[in-house]
Design goal:
Growth Hormone, Chain: A; mainly alpha; 23 helices
């Protein structure tokens, strides 16, 4: 048995190049899929009119955000399916299938007829396609969020967590901003409502192409390789083992999942009410031109990437819990007032500054969340556990923009409603930060325990 485990560890040894490729592939896999989701947020006012028309603009927006929430609600199902597959058959295979599926389903949105062309069937097709997309996005989370952090050395894990979770979101938003800028330039004014929004969805094909190129040299996670080798060495015992999902929902992990969901729900709500709602806020409340909006959002994406990596790296030095607490204090102190301040100024530089601060506090501040979730589970259920924890919380948090739009009778009420919601989710995040355990170093403890090594 000792020889087998030594062989497993040798098999799992990775070069520096493989580590970089794994981190980059996980980051860009998540970024490309968030790019697909961001496209809808960038064209929400247009899609609202074309698929969910109403005399009240906020109700049209609510329809769009409800279709966005539907995608999020399907993500836990995708995580259950792809997470279980990733735990049994490898993170790489699961990510390849999921990224390709998201790209294709996004491109199909560009072919859909509007309500003026097809009547009530148009919004029905739109929502059904969102359901399909949600399953694949949930699969990306279950695989990319695990493969990257499992593949890098311990002292990089916090930074890579920020790179994938927060940085990937920033890159996805940045790519969507660039596509939005180009589409707005190619199809100005009324033409954007005819062809511009369709071209943005067609850009989803880029994710499939880039994903295929990224994964050519990608190696499997060393943690999964070791686990797979140990299973192969004791085949008789494997047949009696519980499935990853059955183990995950046992009493042993019930409290772990509850605490995880508190953190992911508050993080997801903050993210979608800040970075997710900003394109709509800048266009609907501040009435900024498309070019100005996309420029501000591109700068926001770049800053979010840098901030997420820095905050994630800080969790390697100070610990996950302390960084969560520090971020929680800043969020509850600043997030509720930023949207109010944005309504009181017409200065574009000042608006840009508030936007950047919102994005960093609402998005990048949860940078250690990904590695925290990974460190809560053993290798055999890590993809399933991380994926479900993340997607259940972000599905619940992703419903917040819909409620904000429904509870705002007019565009003028949006800032106040956003502020109250941000106060609530920031308080929940801070509560979660105080009750979570410190998990830094748990992956190595788990690895030694699974291998039967001393010091576990």
């Amino acid at each position: 048995m000792e020889t087998t485990l030594a062989g497993a560890r040798n098999t799992a040894t990775q070069s520096n190049r493989s580590i970089v490729i794994a981190a980059a592939a996980s980051c860009f896999g998540w970024a490309l899929d968030l790019f697909d989701l961001f496209i809808l947020l960038y064209v929400a006012p247009v899609v609202g009119k074309l698929f969910f028309p109403s005399d009240h603009p906020t109700l049209s927006l609510a329809g769009v955000y409800a279709s966005f929430a539907v995608t999020l609600l399907m993500r836990p199902i995708g995580s259950a399916l792809f997470g279980s597959y990733a735990d049994r058959n490898g993170r790489k295979r699961a990510m390849q299938i999921a990224v390709f599926g998201v790209g294709i389903s996004t491109a199909v949105f560009g072919t859909l007829p509007t309500i003026a062309q097809a009547g009530v069937i148009a919004p029905i097709l739109f929502v059904l396609l969102r359901l399909v997309q949600g399953v694949f996005v949930g699969g990306v989370v279950a695989s990319s969020h695990t493969l990257g952090t499992e593949s890098v050395p311990p002292h990089w894990r916090g930074a890579v967590s920020g790179l994938i979770g927060g940085g990937g979101a920033g890159i996805g938003g940045l790519l969507a901003s660039i596509v939005f800028f180009i589409a707005s330039a190619l199809f100005p004014g009324p033409q954007f409502e005819v062809w511009g929004w369709r071209v943005m969805f067609f850009a989803g094909l880029i994710t499939s192409l880039l994903g295929a190129l990224l994964f050519l040299r990608l190696e499997e996670s060393p943690f999964w390789k070791e686990q797979h080798a140990r299973k192969a060495a004791r085949k008789a015992a494997v047949s009696k083992q519980s499935s990853p999902l059955r183990t995950l929902f046992s009493s042993e992990y019930r409290r772990v999942m509850i605490v995880n969901v508190i953190m992911t729900t508050s993080s997801g709500a903050g993210y979608y009410l800040c970075s997710g709602y900003l394109p709509t806020f800048l266009k609907v409340v501040k009435h900024l031109p498309n070019g100005t909006t996309s420029t501000i959002l591109m700068a926001t994406g770049l800053l979010s990437i840098a901030a997420a990596i820095a905050i994630g790296a800080a969790s390697d030095f100070f610990g996950r819990k302390k960084v969560f607490i520090g971020a929680g204090v800043l969020r509850i102190a600043l997030l509720p007032i930023l949207y109010i301040l944005m309504t009181k100024t017409d200065s574009v530089p000042l608006l840009a500054g508030y936007t950047l601060l919102l994005a960093v506090l609402g998005g990048a501040s949860y940078a250690p969340l990904l590695i925290f979730l990974n460190e809560r589970f053993p290798t055999a259920i890590r993809a399933s556990g991380t994926g479900l924890s993340w997607n259940i919380g972000f599905a619940l948090g992703g419903m917040m923009p819909t409620f904000v739009s429904l509870l705002s009778a007019s565009e003028q009420q949006l800032p106040a409603t956003l502020s109250w919601f941000l106060l609530g989710v920031s308080a929940l995040f801070l509560v979660g930060a105080f009750i979570v355990p410190e998990t830094r170093g748990n992956l190595e403890v788990s690895r030694r325990s699974e291998a039967g090594m001393p010091g576990a």
